[in-house]
């Protein structure tokens, strides 16, 4: 028995030595592979920045050509105006000599031009970003007791639809909603505050720290907005005031593109393919919320906020629009 015990002890010593060597090798493998990844990401960053620099140079050249062309046109027109001024001071006989010359030269000035709306074509698309965001995905559901009365819900509070045009529907629309699984927002006696003026709803989740990610899907291409907000925004009465100024950090999406909701309205940025799934990533500690296209991982916009201890998911829907908050998928 002693001989067997000492033999087993010797095996365990060898196992410990072998295990130590295995861990050392695995640690080296992990460090080496991460070094490769860092190198790959650095190269990818350099390539993207080079594409952006080329786009910048090409656009500057185009703008320079446009400016030169406009300067030449303005110089020519100034010269013609000066000639007309001089002729107007001359005698009637001189004024009537060859008037077509000035008019012909005036007609040849090409002013069929309108400034181009400049948009950056090089996307902010970071490899592996989609996979990294999934690590922070959380289950978000809608707080029906905060919803505008025209919003109806299904799929256990993950799907919402704006029935604002229900008055134009057939008389059986209420029955159809019932059989389709939709139900009107419920009034809670414990939490009476809700959106009375705008078709909005908050998420049940209250975030006070940490990193959180969720995905929102819309299939009909109608106008919706999503993001985060403070809890005291439910009295807002004007859609145009939905902005960081009142404590709402969100983006507007439709089939026509997307734009951040700010106090300054802008032209939506066209997204190809059209945005159907948007990822919302909240980093409460860093004080920012970012938006991504779920399909290709392209970064859409980032808001920064400060001195806000509690934020909740925020949603706005145009008439007949609907959205679904996607369930949590495998975080691996």
TrEMBL record:
Gene this protein is translated from: LOC103265050
The protein, known as: E3 ubiquitin-protein ligase TRIM4-like isoform X2
Tell me the PANTHER family matching this sequence: E3 UBIQUITIN-PROTEIN LIGASE TRIM
Q: Which residues form the B30.2/SPRY domain?
A: 120-332
Instruction: Note the InterPro entries from the entry.
Output: B30.2/SPRY, B30.2/SPRY_sf, Butyrophylin_SPRY, ConA-like_dom_sf, PRY/SPRY_TRIM4, SPRY_dom, TRIM/RBCC
